[in-house]
Structure formats: structure tokens, C-alpha cells
Amino acid sequence: MSRLLPFKKWLAVFLCLFGTIAFSKEFPNILELKYELTQNGESLGTVIEKFMIDETGHYHIESITKGIGLYALFGDRVLISEGKISFEGLKPKRFEVHQGSNASKNATVDFDWDNQILITRYKGSETKENIGNKTQDLISYLYQFNYENFDEPMIEFVAATGKKYKKYQFRVVDKKVELSLGNVNFETTSIQSIAEKDGKPETQIWLNNKLYKLPIRIRYQEKNGSTLEQNLVQANIDLNGL
Q1: Is there a contact between 17 and 241 (Cβ–Cβ < 8 Å)?
Q2: pTM
Q3: Where exactly are the structural domains of the chain?
Q4: Per-residue pLDDT for 137 more than 70?
Q5: Cβ–Cβ under 8 Å, residues 198 and 187
Q6: Count helices and strands in the chain by DSSP H and E runs
Q7: How far apart are CA 158 and CA 75, in angstroms?
């Protein structure tokens, strides 16, 4: 059974379901999330993500950023992550970045876990780096939080961005933050990156405490001083098996 609901009705449904799925680490078969994207409070467009798992435990994530107005001229930004889910969480096999029709900005990353090597192809060049077991990519890491231990003061991993291999360190700020979106309140865990830009955390994330630790709000500090923010506005969850 799949349900596509407006934001407020969606929330009401899941408040009823929280008693059975609140602390589950097993993602549903299909999960779709829609975020509003803003820059310094001005609407830029939407981010639509679709997370799917098949019967063998392989996952596929597709994240599409669609700009509006002048920002639409840049084309859709598409991130694709494929891999497998184990008891430790997501283990990417391939990651792709596509930017509109500009093929020069495309990037692919292959994870060779047998040899512990990351192979990145970008702008005609190929680079190889050694990787550790907790390596993620630019989209899978947001779902990996569902498997992390928030009793630890720090959450660390490295992620492939398509251009580089970047270390992420997040500090747990508060495990019980009330976050309001419209007329709806969420109880979230607030985390922020150790890395800073202009004296502010490079990344701040508010994770839902009662639904797979899904990001409710993500805030990025840009190099030019602007602030990008994603806020969850709609969700579609396949309830099969719950």
C-alpha cells in the first residue's frame, strides 16, 4: 500500500504509525521525499528524492534538484547512488552526478570494495584512492544517519562528491529540538559539521527522531556567504511490510 499525502495529512498518518516504526532501522521498500530549496530565504526550487530497496537488499537513490525562474536555466541537478544495505547501513557501489545537459560537469564514482579503492571519473581524468568501510557518497550519507549511534559525541565518515573525497565530522548538538514547519512541530536531533565557513557550521541537519532519522531540514553555508536550506514539505512511503 502506497500513500501520497499532503504535508499535514502525511504527518498525521505517521504520528499514528510511530508506535510501530519509530525506532526501526529497516527502510521501507519505497521512500519519496520532497524538499523546498531556498537561498537566504528566497525560493530556488525543489529537491525530490526517491529511495528504493529491492528484495535482495540493493538500494537505488535518485535526487533531483529542479530550479525555478533563472535557476531553471542551469538544468536539473541529478545525483544517483546505488549499492547494498547491510546491518551497518548503506554500502555504495556507484555514484553519479549530472548537471543539466552540460556533460562536462558529469562525474561517476565506482566503489571497489574488494580492493578498497574508490575510482572517480571527472572531466576526462580518472583518480583512485584508498577507502575505508564507512565511505559514503554525497547522497547516501543522509540516509546513513539512520544506522549511526547518536550516543557518541561525534559521527564521522568520508564521502565521495564526484570531485573529491571529503571527510565529514558531525557533532551532536541536541537530541531533542522542536522544529516547526508551518503549523507542524517535529522532535528532531540537531547535528552540525565541525568544519566551518565564515564562522558558521558548514552543514547543519535536523533529523526526525521518530522516522528513520530522515532529514527534516538541511542548512548549508556557501563560500559566498549565502545560506542554502532544504525543508521537507511532502513524503510518499510504501507501507508494505510494516
Answers
A1: no
A2: 0.85
A3: 2-238
A4: yes
A5: no
A6: 2, 18
A7: 28
